[in-house]
Amino acid sequence: xxxxxxxxNHEEEIFHRALSVSDDVKNIVRExxxxxxxxxxxxxxxxxxxxNDAPRALSTVTGDLExxxxxxxxxxxxEYALLCFTMYQRLxxxxxxxxxxxxxxxxxDREAMLKxxxxxxxxxxxxxxxxxxxxxxxxxxxxxxxxxAVNQTRMLTRLKYVKKSNYNxxxxxxxxxxxxxxxxxxxxxxxxxxxxxxxx
Length: 200
Known about the structure:
The protein is an all-alpha fold. Helices cover 66% and strands 0% of the residues. The protein has one domain. α5 runs antiparallel to α6. The protein is globular, with a radius of gyration of 19 Å.
């Protein structure tokens, strides 16, 4: 166990640094968690008319975790992914719900989407008001800024990039970094996932 051998730095306020995990490892693991969760859900929606017909590997938390762990490089990424998986995977749920509502033809879903947007706009106004009332410049010191920010806008962008990358993590990361490529990185193995592996 890597973290057990390293020990913890209890003086460090930021969680991953207290575990002696670098910012780069934290960021790459977080993106692998987001990528695997979005990829499984999108594949299930694209390949099956009824989501209940999709293999469990594409529609469960454990399926998302399995895909994420397959993407990890080395023990440190593997252990940190296990430790933080649930926290980051939960952040994908509102984005997926919004995506489903936006792409639904059901009038009830469209009405729910409109209500969701109104509530989100009100919440954003409240967050901005709270931020301007706060004396603290940096309320969350480890909060990512720029293209890797974790907010609803960037989460929707991540979901779009998963589709645009044709389910290839390296292409996805290039899109996140703003790197343009003309080379095709279509990953048929990633697309099919565990569909053909005899899922009950």
